[in-house]
Design goal:
2 domains, Lyase 2-enoyl-coa Hydratase, Chain  A, domain 2, 3-stranded mixed sheet, 6-stranded mixed sheet, alpha/beta, globular, 2-enoyl-CoA Hydratase, Chain A, domain 1
Length: about 280
Amino acid sequence: MKHYIGERNPMRAQFDAQAPYAARHFSWQFEAGVGTITLNRPERKNPLTFDSYAELRDLFRRLVQVDEVKAIVVQGAGGNFCSGGDVHEIIGPLTRMSMPDLLAFTRMTGDLVKAMRACPQPVLAAIDGVCAGAGAIMAMAADLRLGTARSKLAFLFTRVGLAGCDMGACSILPRIIGQGRASDLLYSGRSLGGEEAHQWGFLNRLAEPEALEQAALDWARDIAGGPSFAHAMTKKMLHQEWNMGVDEAIESEAQAQAICMMTQDFHRAYHAFVAKQRPQFEGD
């Protein structure tokens, strides 16, 4: 039976997670609490266009208010994650734009990262093959990253005469792999293989290429089975505390944890523990 979140709570979005999502360059699937976004232009290694940037941004913004979706997987079709901005549909037109139009474009691309960070669901990037340019940024903006040994990560911006400071890279990437390693990638634009990316901490886990999709879904389903309100709080604090001192962070976490202690999931976990059962979380 189809379920619309708005029927349960008028403050939430009218979004049917199980219905096909109308987008040109990616597909949407939903099952067992997990929404899967698949970039599906495999013949071009899944590049982004003006439209797909906006479509992805808008979807992540809508998911902010969709309780039904508890975790999100982002992947690419055809053995590659994403080759970045389409050379013909983005790079070429950019060379003919005015400064105001260029700034509108770069702000829109940054808005995709903001939307990924602002959505409460943990976002897992499943990375195989090419993961370059804006594709590398999308992977960076995810909360968790699962890759393969044949993954090729590259922040290519300096290779096309641009700065490495694109879509938040100079802020977020050093927090994942450290300042020195981030500097290496952002200055050189070089490719980082999957095993090295795992050693550096960019990839949380590695899987065999043929097992990547299932491994990502299994990981996402495991997350979706947890306390989704508490997961959302964890994600919020992970991002919010970047701008805090330790004392302020400790106080903020005290407030966040006290809020979580008011949830039914917290009480379910206690009663399940007493009964020596596994808790069944419902996100309330």
